[in-house]
Write a structure and sequence with these properties.
The protein is an alpha/beta fold. The protein is 29% helix and 20% strand. Helix 6 (159-174) runs parallel beside helix 7 (186-194).
Length: 351
């Protein structure tokens, strides 16, 4: 455990007394065993003869996983073992907490199913009344939806929701002549833009379906095709640059993949055009082979030779959007207090 853990437990003695059952039965002195931070969550000191029951429980604290907006804790976290095991289970598609919650809702499901079948048998279902022209309703296979009533009416938070909506709105306002997108979500941002204008999409992976208002081209943007240089007054790359060169999507391994990818993006933009860019922000690191996380200052430094920053917004670790935030020394120093946030940059290429 790091220094923070030791500071939080400095008032707790290094050794606590815990009575052994054998010692109590035998009448001997209780054995002493060391208690270390992280090994015990709650420890109740033994009661001496004639001493009143202690009023408080000594709690040995360990750091907890910070909220990061993701199921996987940030790199270097030394939290309790149970959250780590839960996160490992979620990595392979198993969520024990959700599973237990779902099982607990089964009695309600079967109770309501029985009640509904009774209502249908009593003539409460269309088509069961005598002389009805509609076919009778029959029960098909059961399809349990056990926790939907616990959810909100929709998801209106998180990096993808906010970035897709925000950048699509910016493009609608700007009304560019030609918009090129690199590897953003087809079922999110691309669909938003395609609802009001034509958009050309480039990705290293194939796209096998045809979508109205969407033109697709397969390409590796770490090696820009020459015919794409300075051909668009509007280019976007949302939550994609962090993957370049990590091999996750079939791209070749390249430690400078994000730099080569940015060079390609910059080369596609005409002088005076805009580049819409987003990526994870927080303490700068890579988490192979998933993604890189950028310090807020890094994309600013990458863009500085050719671009001016028009807008900076970010989504924090809770999934809340902060629009058009000024760049300050404090923001750069703390990375907006994000561990896994999303930075959204709107750059304008100098003429």
């Amino acid at each position: 455990m790091g220094n923070a853990g030791r500071d939080r437990t400095s008032r707790v003695p290094r050794t606590a007394v815990a009575a052994s059952p054998k010692a109590v039965r035998g009448g001997g002195a209780p054995k002493r065993r060391p208690v270390t931070p992280g090994s015990v969550r709650n420890h109740r000191p033994p009661k001496e003869a004639g001493q009143a029951e202690p009023l408080a429980v000594v709690r040995i604290l360990t750091p907890r996983t910070p909220a990061s907006g993701r199921g996987i804790p940030p790199s270097g976290h030394n939290g309790p073992r149970m959250p780590r095991l839960l996160n490992l289970a979620r990595l392979v598609g198993i969520d024990p907490v959700k599973g237990l919650t779902t099982l607990g809702r089964l009695p309600r499901f079967f109770r309501q199913r029985s009640q509904f079948r009774t209502l249908c048998a009593a003539g409460g279902s269309v088509g069961t009344q005598p002389g009805s022209p509609a076919p009778a309703w029959r029960e098909g296979k059961i399809y349990p939806c056990l926790t939907d009533d616990l959810d909100q009416s929709g998801t209106a938070s998180g990096a993808y929701f906010h970035q897709d909506l925000y950048v699509a709105q910016k493009i609608f306002e700007a009304a560019p002549r030609r918009h090129l997108d690199v590897a953003s979500r087809v079922d999110g941002f691309v669909a938003h833009v395609a609802s009001f204008r034509r958009i050309e999409v480039l990705d290293i992976r194939p796209l096998s379906v045809s979508i109205p208002n969407v033109t697709f081209r397969q390409a590796d943007l770490m090696r820009l095709p020459e015919d794409l240089r300075e051909t668009a007054d509007s280019v976007s790359c949302l939550h994609a640059l962090e993957h370049f060169g990590l091999g996750r999507y079939g791209d070749p391994l390249d430690a400078e993949g994000h730099l080569k990818g940015f060079e390609s993006l910059a080369a596609m933009v005409e002088p005076g055009g805009r580049l819409y860019l987003s990526m994870p922000i927080g303490p700068q690191r890579y988490e192979f082979n998933a993604h890189r996380v950028f310090a807020i200052a890094t994309p600013l430094a990458m863009a500085k030779p050719q671009f001016d920053l028009e807008h900076f917004s970010f989504v924090d670790d809770r999934g809340d959007m902060h629009r058009d935030v000024p760049i300050t020394e404090e923001l750069l120093r703390t990375n907006a207090n994000c561990v896994w946030g999303c930075g959204i940059y709107v750059f304008r290429k100098r003429r």
